[in-house]
Amino acid sequence: MLRGDDRAAPHRLRDAVSRGDALAARQLLDGAPADDPEVLDALARAAAAGGTGSRLATELLVERLDASGVVRRFVRGALLDEAAVDDVTQDALISVADSIASFSGAAKVTTWVHRIVRNRVVDHLRRQRATSPLPADDVGPAERMSSMIATRATVREVLAGLPDRYRGPVTLRDVEGLAYGEIAERLDRSVGTVKSQVARGRALVAAALRAGLEGSTAR
After folding, report:
1. C-alpha to C-alpha distance for 46 and 196, rounded to whole angstroms
2. Where are the domains of the chain?
3. Residue 102 has what DSSP assignment?
4. Which band of pLDDT confidence, cut at 50, 70 and 90, is reported for residue 205?
């Protein structure tokens, strides 16, 4: 449950997120299980609603889905190869961030996420089973996002706005092309932490790009 477990806690979380108050939101979440359904639902609804706090809500949602291992468990239930599990988990997190506006709240967040994971698993298996060369753009969301960060100035501008803990690893991986081990050594972090931060950072870039596209369309 949320910190200060009481009936007002979910309301305070929604209020903090809607204001874009990251410090207050993180304090409320401190100690709550990463897979707390009440928290995931509140964050997903706030992210889907758009507005001032949607970017923060998306960031927190991606963080907690990743930290809880729920996405990885879904992927591992369908795939055995650990490298493939890493890739598809990252693809799924990016898809969650990119499509959060479609979350209606009619089903549990984890049910909605599971559908996304299933689609990314199917995409991965289709590419693996292809008997003829695939088009150059037929790649997973993580690989596509990595390429966009490396080659598009507008995407690099979005990258510059990421929180420091994500901007550094994503820049070193996708702009400078360093291996995860090299990044871990340079930043004095574990390889697992670096992989997680790159995945989360790419997901946030995807979410920011989608929000920018929708904003320009609305105008």
Report:
1. 23
2. 9-218
3. G
4. very high
Span between the terminal Cα atoms of the chain, in Å? 40
The single-letter DSSP state of residue 219 is -
**How far apart, in whole angstroms, are the C-alpha atoms of residue 95 and residue 192?**
21
47 in Cβ contact with 103 (< 8 Å): yes
What is the rounded CA–CA span in Å between residue 73 and residue 205? 24
Two tokens, residue 2: 């949320």
Please name the residue that has the structure tokens 């932490």.
193
- DSSP E strands: which ranges in 106-185? none
Q: Give the per-residue pLDDT at 142.
A: 85
Cα–Cα distance, 170 to 197 (Å, whole number): 8
Residue pair 25/16 in contact by the 8 Å Cβ criterion:
yes
On the question of pLDDT at 66 being above 90, the answer is yes
- Which residue is it, tokens 């809500």? 57
Which residue in this structure is represented by tokens 């979350």?
103
At which residue do the structure tokens 């200060």 appear? 4
pTM of the predicted protein model: 0.83
- Strands (DSSP E) along the chain, which ranges? none
